[in-house]
Amino acid sequence: RSHLWTGARLHVEMSGSVDKVHAEVSEYYGTTLEKTEDLATNACCTGAAPPPHIRAALSKVHPDVIARYYGCGLCVPDELDGLSVLDLGCGSGRDVYLLSQLVGETGRVVGVDMTPTQIEVAREHAAWHATKFGFATPNTEFVDGKIEDLRACGLADASFDVIVSNCVINLAADKRAVLAEAHRVLRAGGELYFSDVYSSRRVPEALVADTVLYGECLSGALYWNDFLALAKSVGFDDPRLVEDAPITINNAALEAKVGNIKFFSATYRLFKLPQGMLEPDCEDYGQAVIYKGSIPRHPASWSLDGHHEMETGKVFTVCGNTHHMLHDTRFAPHFDFIGDKSVHFGIFEGCGKSLPFSTDEGGSKGGGSCC
After folding, report:
1. d(CA 201, CA 276)
2. For residue 76, what are the contacts with CB-CB under 8 A and spacing of at least 6?
3. Helix, strand, or coil here: 312?
4. What is the pTM of this model?
5. List of domains in the chain
6. Which residues pair with 110 in a beta bridge?
7. pLDDT tens column, 327-359
8. What is the CA radius of gyration of the chain?
């Protein structure tokens, strides 16, 4: 059995059916939990304070929707005006209604969730939010369905610019299917920007079968290195970590169960670019970019991920992959680009890999024979 089928997939094998996993998760979020305070741990909560424009947008979201929020991060990428956005596992619709304001009346936001009681709350407040936002008609839609099968939800190939998901993929019965479907419905140059829970090691099957640990977004979490391999296997090459934070759980009984396994809340961005455009490693082609300072609310600098903060007006050297993530996406108008890929200078220093060979004349230890 491939290690890529860990986490929720083990739960599927033990329980005997994907449907049982779906039923357990739906029951937990539809009946067991009635409000945020009912959570048994802090794994699905975030203490990070949102920026002012997000706080302002959240203040316009209906209190009944806010009360059923169970996310673990803030999934709001920049440059959303007029775009089509999909929220995987939208729950009661908090992030959908937040994003609705950011894409504007000409954009659209679709939320998918498999828990009927959550979808009911979201749909019930659609007209209220459109009026609150000053829109003639709602720019939101909610679909009752499974994020592992977006085709059954009626979502066509290449129909979204951005996909977000907030602490949900760890609950999915088939994580590979979720990522593959996300890749399918994204347009070229689009991205999956999502927060989720990851583990420091593979979670044992006995813990995966624990309904509370699973529902609390812990035992369904992927081991971080399995996630990276899984993302690449469906076409999301070079996943970029935006931000991360440790999860403390704050529940003595559950902490005792998980033992030495550490859990983290992390936000990744996965770009859909033509096959072969992004290389397995960061390669140096002598390229650079200059940020124009034109992305709203980021006049002095802007960060692509946790390792690439670009100051306005300053030449910033980049590897070939970073060049493409800026040049071949919606961010291109905000940068000037220097260089092409006509000359290769080797591995890009500082990206986790370096020349494996000794540069001393004596060479590496060992005999002098060839091969």
Report:
1. 30
2. 54, 95, 98, 99, 102, 164
3. strand
4. 0.87
5. 3-271 (3.40.50.150), 287-338 (no CATH)
6. 86, 141
7. 999 999 999 999 999 999 999 988 777 777 876
8. 22
